[in-house]
Design goal:
159 residues; 2 helices; 26% helix; alpha+beta
Length: 159
């Protein structure tokens, strides 16, 4: 029996799962088990830079400060790191490791599957809570209050 293959057509920003209202909410990096630690650190840095760039774009279209966050998944081997990047006036940009999850791969670790799924569902709920409400539709953008505090993703320094 052949496996059923589903073909997705007309993939656009509108129906891409990482986009809501044509804005990215997060990003991911996926690496295999054999990836050296130096490359893992480089990829974590790239993930952070992408999250910051997404956060700046999200802030530009925000109508509420609850939208001042983006989300990242870093998957390597059987490990998943869930990141949240937030911005506020007092602390600027803050990157948090929300959870570090080990995937259930054996019959002994299978008993922890409910915990793993619970953590992933809780992370999804954090993402959902950061979305704008219907009540925010009539509110003005708040970008002008924060524009002077935003920093570029890349800075060039003259030495």
């Amino acid at each position: 029996m052949k496996p059923k293959i589903t073909v997705i057509q007309n993939l656009s920003l509108q129906n891409k799962p990482s986009y809501i209202n044509r804005r990215e909410l997060g990003c991911r990096e996926i690496k295999c088990i054999e990836t050296p630690n130096t490359l893992l650190e480089e990829d974590r840095t790239q993930l952070t830079e992408t999250m910051k760039r997404q956060l700046n774009v999200r802030i530009m279209k925000a109508k509420s400060i609850k939208e001042f966050q983006t989300f990242g998944f870093f998957i390597y081997g059987f490990e998943i790191e869930l990141y949240v990047m937030r911005f506020d006036k007092e602390n600027g940009y803050q990157l948090y490791l929300s959870q570090n999850i080990t995937l259930s791969t054996t019959s002994s670790s299978y008993s922890n599957l409910d915990i793993t799924l619970g953590l992933l569902l809780a992370f999804k709920n954090i993402i959902t809570a950061s979305l704008s409400d219907d009540t925010d539709a009539t509110e003005p953008y708040i970008y002008n209050k924060y524009v002077m505090l935003l920093k570029p993703t890349v800075e060039f320094v003259n030495e």
